[in-house]
Design a protein that fits this description.
- The protein is α/β, with parallel strands linked by helices.
- It has two domains: 2-55 and 374-426, Roll (Urease, subunit C, domain 1); 58-365, TIM Barrel (Alpha-Beta Barrel), CATH 3.20.20.140.
- The protein has helices at 77-86, 105-115, 140-146, 161-173, 185-188, 197-202, 210-226, 238-248, 260-264, 267-272, 288-299, 315-318, 335-344, 350-357, 359-365; strands spanning 2-11, 15-25, 28-34, 46-49, 54-57, 59-64, 89-94, 121-124, 178-180, 193-194, 206-207, 230-232, 254-258, 305-306, 380-390, 409-419, 422-426.
- Strands 1, 2, 3, 4, 5, 15, 16 and 17 form an eight-stranded mixed beta sheet that branches. Strands 9-12-13-14 form a four-stranded parallel beta sheet, with helices on both faces.
- Helix 2 runs parallel beside helix 3, helix 7 (210-226) packs parallel to helix 8 (238-248) and helix 8 (238-248) packs parallel to helix 11.
Amino acid sequence: MILLQNIDILHTKKGFSRNLNIAIKDSNIIDIFPSNLTKNEYSDFNHINCQNLTAVPSFVDIHSHLREPGFEYKETIESGANAAKSGGFTDICCMANTSPVVDNEEVVKYILSKSASTGISVYPIAAITKGLKGESLTEFGHLVDAGVVAFSDDGSDVNNSFLMKSAFEYANFFNKPIFCHSEDQKLSANGVMNEGYYSMLAGLHGNPSISEEVAVFRNIKIAEYTGARVHICHVSSRGSVALINQAKKSYGRITAESAPHYTYLTDKDVYQSDYNTNFKINPPIRGEADRDSIIEGLRDDTIDCIATDHAPHAEHEKEVEFDKAPFGAIGFETAFPVCYQMVINNKLTIEKLISKMSIEPAKIIGIEKNEIELGEVADITIINLQLEKVYKKEEIYSKSKNSPFIDSKFKGWVVATICKGRIVYNIIK
């Protein structure tokens, strides 16, 4: 039983309500009342003073990599969940590129079993093709019955268009979305950063934005032809934003995400990082015009949500030449503070930001995420919007430390996370 005292509540449609108390019992919000009102029936609750803090609907991440089974040296379900909790997430989806691949019921059951003790909800996303090889489809029906919420060969696209058409048809039958990693690998051609002026200065092989855009167009057209739900992952380029915007005007079953790093960094930052491989991400961090287009896409709802693409790698894997390092960066812990910079810079309202990190991603995977209201499940993220601090490597919860934001200062940090009425993370003093 918890009583959050003197807290502000942010409703994504109505804005702020100030200086309230929230009473939580079991898994539900049982009362919300002004903080200057004393109610004796809550005297035995765990009182937490939340003065100058803000309660928002807890975050949902529909795109992450937990690495277990098979790559526990990078991350485990437990360590990934701990990182997620510290970032305000109570619901996360994990991608299929584990070992063994999430392409059968047994691996799904393993993930669900391992995640049961984490204190948050973990939703497996199954592979589209067996072994992620792009050759034959997985058993969609059996995987849906086992508990998957979507299908994706994230890490690579399904280059066989006929096979992709079949995948959309099967996914449509089960009313599950296909999450598309949109990349024409003949065009990306082993590029390691965005192709352009800064890749030339760095002397690194470039990955052009059209490698993403051509594949986005193809995947949207196949989905439209089959009538299926398509979700475009980690949108990084203004061309992709334009394609999605145009397609949404005629086809209503398209959703899209971008990641925090695409809203904040540019390829100039990659160049100036002195070959820091934590900046090596796929799709690559692109130019300033791409970043601005992604922010505009979030503002006008072309891009439905923000997802971290949390991708842990061990230090020895990243401590090599830029060309040889694996793609990916961790993202749970810095997701909100990085994205909150859009609010500070008056490029996005805080109401829309919270919706993009909570309400909207939940809709895509078919789970319920409600505002903080009487009678609702107590899934709450508590934020100190005034807290300014440096993200330090030694404070990272993730097992891997591959973040481009290490030693960067941000304002606005998660200080507590409540999942189904239980405190799963708390640094409120």
